[in-house]
Amino acid sequence: MQPENQGMKGWQWAVTIIVIIIIIALGYWLFSRSGSNTSTNNTSTEVSSSTAPVATEANSLVVTDQYPGNVVYVSSVRLAQPGFVAIQKNNNGTPGAVIGSQYFPAGINPGKINLTAATLDGGTYYASLYSDNLGNQKFDATKDMVINDSHGNPIVETFHALSTIPETKG
Fold first, then answer.
1. Pairing of β 71-79 and β 107-114
2. Contact at 8 Å (CB) between 116 and 100?
3. pTM for this one?
4. What φ, ψ does residue 15 adopt, rounded to 5°?
5. What distance in Å separates the CA atoms of residue 120 and residue 7, rounded to the nearest whole number?
6. Looking at the domain assignment, is residue 48 inside a domain?
7. Considering the domain boundaries, does residue 69 fall inside one?
8. 147 closest CA partner among 58, 26, 21, 55
Protein backbone atom coordinates (compact mmCIF):
# COMPACT_ATOMS: atom_id res chain seq x y z
CA MET A 1 0.00 0.00 0.00
CA GLN A 2 1.13 3.50 -0.78
CA PRO A 3 1.14 6.12 1.96
CA GLU A 4 -1.77 8.55 1.80
CA ASN A 5 -0.78 11.86 0.17
CA GLN A 6 -1.85 14.75 2.37
CA GLY A 7 -2.60 18.25 1.11
CA MET A 8 -3.53 19.53 -2.31
CA LYS A 9 -1.26 19.14 -5.32
CA GLY A 10 -0.43 22.09 -7.55
CA TRP A 11 -2.85 21.04 -10.29
CA GLN A 12 -5.66 20.74 -7.72
CA TRP A 13 -5.05 24.33 -6.61
CA ALA A 14 -5.08 25.49 -10.24
CA VAL A 15 -8.37 23.71 -10.97
CA THR A 16 -9.90 25.13 -7.78
CA ILE A 17 -8.90 28.69 -8.71
CA ILE A 18 -10.23 28.28 -12.27
CA VAL A 19 -13.57 26.99 -10.95
CA ILE A 20 -13.84 29.95 -8.53
CA ILE A 21 -13.13 32.42 -11.37
CA ILE A 22 -15.79 30.77 -13.54
CA ILE A 23 -18.34 30.94 -10.71
CA ILE A 24 -17.61 34.63 -10.11
CA ALA A 25 -17.85 35.41 -13.85
CA LEU A 26 -21.13 33.50 -14.13
CA GLY A 27 -22.52 35.30 -11.07
CA TYR A 28 -21.52 38.67 -12.51
CA TRP A 29 -23.10 37.82 -15.86
CA LEU A 30 -26.37 36.77 -14.19
CA PHE A 31 -26.32 39.81 -11.89
CA SER A 32 -25.64 42.27 -14.73
CA ARG A 33 -28.52 40.85 -16.78
CA SER A 34 -31.01 41.58 -13.98
CA GLY A 35 -30.22 45.33 -14.10
CA SER A 36 -31.24 45.68 -10.46
CA ASN A 37 -28.31 47.93 -9.54
CA THR A 38 -28.56 50.50 -12.31
CA SER A 39 -28.89 54.09 -11.22
CA THR A 40 -30.07 57.04 -13.28
CA ASN A 41 -29.11 59.67 -10.70
CA ASN A 42 -25.39 60.35 -11.08
CA THR A 43 -25.46 63.41 -8.80
CA SER A 44 -26.02 61.46 -5.60
CA THR A 45 -23.21 60.05 -3.47
CA GLU A 46 -24.40 56.47 -3.58
CA VAL A 47 -22.44 53.83 -1.73
CA SER A 48 -21.92 50.53 -3.54
CA SER A 49 -22.37 47.32 -1.60
CA SER A 50 -21.48 44.72 -4.21
CA THR A 51 -19.82 41.53 -3.12
CA ALA A 52 -17.83 40.78 -6.28
CA PRO A 53 -15.56 42.95 -8.40
CA VAL A 54 -17.03 44.17 -11.67
CA ALA A 55 -14.97 42.66 -14.48
CA THR A 56 -15.60 45.59 -16.85
CA GLU A 57 -14.27 48.25 -14.46
CA ALA A 58 -10.61 49.26 -14.45
CA ASN A 59 -10.87 49.93 -10.70
CA SER A 60 -12.79 47.88 -8.15
CA LEU A 61 -12.79 46.94 -4.50
CA VAL A 62 -14.02 43.95 -2.48
CA VAL A 63 -14.28 44.20 1.32
CA THR A 64 -16.40 41.91 3.47
CA ASP A 65 -17.67 42.20 7.05
CA GLN A 66 -14.81 42.06 9.55
CA TYR A 67 -14.19 41.28 13.18
CA PRO A 68 -13.83 44.49 15.25
CA GLY A 69 -10.26 45.64 15.76
CA ASN A 70 -7.31 47.69 14.52
CA VAL A 71 -6.95 45.99 11.13
CA VAL A 72 -9.18 45.77 8.04
CA TYR A 73 -8.55 43.04 5.47
CA VAL A 74 -9.31 43.81 1.83
CA SER A 75 -10.18 40.79 -0.31
CA SER A 76 -9.32 42.46 -3.61
CA VAL A 77 -8.24 45.85 -4.89
CA ARG A 78 -8.11 46.41 -8.65
CA LEU A 79 -6.39 49.63 -9.70
CA ALA A 80 -5.52 50.84 -13.19
CA GLN A 81 -2.98 53.22 -11.60
CA PRO A 82 -1.37 53.02 -8.13
CA GLY A 83 -3.59 54.39 -5.37
CA PHE A 84 -5.02 53.95 -1.90
CA VAL A 85 -7.79 52.22 -0.01
CA ALA A 86 -9.02 54.50 2.77
CA ILE A 87 -11.15 53.19 5.64
CA GLN A 88 -13.71 55.68 6.88
CA LYS A 89 -16.12 55.91 9.79
CA ASN A 90 -19.86 56.17 9.24
CA ASN A 91 -21.13 59.76 9.17
CA ASN A 92 -24.95 59.43 9.08
CA GLY A 93 -24.92 56.93 6.22
CA THR A 94 -22.01 58.39 4.27
CA PRO A 95 -18.22 58.01 4.51
CA GLY A 96 -16.75 60.22 7.24
CA ALA A 97 -13.39 60.56 8.98
CA VAL A 98 -10.52 58.47 7.61
CA ILE A 99 -9.22 56.01 10.24
CA GLY A 100 -6.70 54.17 8.06
CA SER A 101 -5.25 53.98 4.57
CA GLN A 102 -2.91 51.78 2.59
CA TYR A 103 -1.08 52.27 -0.70
CA PHE A 104 -1.61 49.64 -3.42
CA PRO A 105 0.24 49.24 -6.72
CA ALA A 106 -1.60 49.01 -10.03
CA GLY A 107 -3.13 45.59 -10.68
CA ILE A 108 -5.18 43.22 -8.56
CA ASN A 109 -4.04 42.77 -4.96
CA PRO A 110 -5.39 41.66 -1.58
CA GLY A 111 -4.33 43.72 1.41
CA LYS A 112 -4.36 44.69 5.04
CA ILE A 113 -4.93 48.18 6.44
CA ASN A 114 -3.80 49.18 9.92
CA LEU A 115 -6.19 51.63 11.58
CA THR A 116 -5.58 54.62 13.85
CA ALA A 117 -8.92 53.94 15.60
CA ALA A 118 -10.38 50.47 16.10
CA THR A 119 -13.61 49.40 14.46
CA LEU A 120 -16.35 48.70 16.99
CA ASP A 121 -18.77 45.78 17.12
CA GLY A 122 -21.93 46.59 15.16
CA GLY A 123 -20.37 49.60 13.44
CA THR A 124 -20.71 50.45 9.76
CA TYR A 125 -17.57 51.46 7.91
CA TYR A 126 -16.56 52.36 4.36
CA ALA A 127 -13.61 51.41 2.18
CA SER A 128 -12.95 53.94 -0.61
CA LEU A 129 -10.52 53.99 -3.52
CA TYR A 130 -8.32 57.09 -3.88
CA SER A 131 -5.77 58.04 -6.53
CA ASP A 132 -2.19 58.88 -5.56
CA ASN A 133 -2.30 62.39 -7.06
CA LEU A 134 1.08 63.42 -5.67
CA GLY A 135 2.78 60.13 -6.63
CA ASN A 136 4.46 59.94 -3.22
CA GLN A 137 2.72 56.81 -1.86
CA LYS A 138 1.53 58.87 1.16
CA PHE A 139 -2.20 59.32 1.59
CA ASP A 140 -3.45 62.91 1.82
CA ALA A 141 -7.26 63.18 1.96
CA THR A 142 -7.08 66.83 0.86
CA LYS A 143 -5.03 66.16 -2.30
CA ASP A 144 -5.64 62.53 -3.27
CA MET A 145 -9.00 62.22 -5.02
CA VAL A 146 -11.71 59.56 -4.77
CA ILE A 147 -11.69 57.25 -7.79
CA ASN A 148 -15.00 57.06 -9.64
CA ASP A 149 -16.44 54.14 -11.58
CA SER A 150 -17.45 54.33 -15.25
CA HIS A 151 -20.79 55.92 -14.22
CA GLY A 152 -19.08 58.73 -12.30
CA ASN A 153 -19.91 57.32 -8.84
CA PRO A 154 -17.22 57.03 -6.15
CA ILE A 155 -15.93 53.47 -5.67
CA VAL A 156 -16.93 52.83 -2.07
CA GLU A 157 -17.71 49.54 -0.32
CA THR A 158 -19.72 49.32 2.89
CA PHE A 159 -18.80 46.75 5.52
CA HIS A 160 -19.62 46.07 9.15
CA ALA A 161 -17.54 45.20 12.19
CA LEU A 162 -19.19 42.19 13.81
CA SER A 163 -18.00 40.00 16.68
CA THR A 164 -19.91 37.07 15.14
CA ILE A 165 -19.73 36.75 11.39
CA PRO A 166 -22.03 34.18 9.78
CA GLU A 167 -20.16 31.35 8.10
CA THR A 168 -20.45 31.31 4.33
CA LYS A 169 -20.23 27.89 2.72
CA GLY A 170 -19.90 27.15 -0.90
1. antiparallel
2. yes
3. 0.66
4. -65, -40
5. 37
6. no
7. yes
8. 58
Instruction: Note the pLDDT tens digit of each residue in 40-81.
Output: 444 334 444 444 444 457 999 999 999 999 999 999 999 999
6 pLDDT more than 90: no
For residue 119, how many other CB atoms are within 10 A of its CB? 24
Average pLDDT over residues 28-41: 54
DSSP designation for 54: -
Q: Is residue 67 part of a domain?
A: yes
Rounded CA gap, 95 and 142, in Å? Answer: 15
Instruction: Write the pLDDT tens digit of every residue in 100-132.
Output: 999 999 999 999 999 999 999 999 999 999 999
Number of domains in the chain: 1
CB of 162 closer than 8 Å to CB of 65: yes
What is the rounded distance in angstroms from the CA atom of residue 42 to the CA atom of residue 21? 31
CATH number at residue 124: 2.60.40
Domain that holds residue 115: 60-160
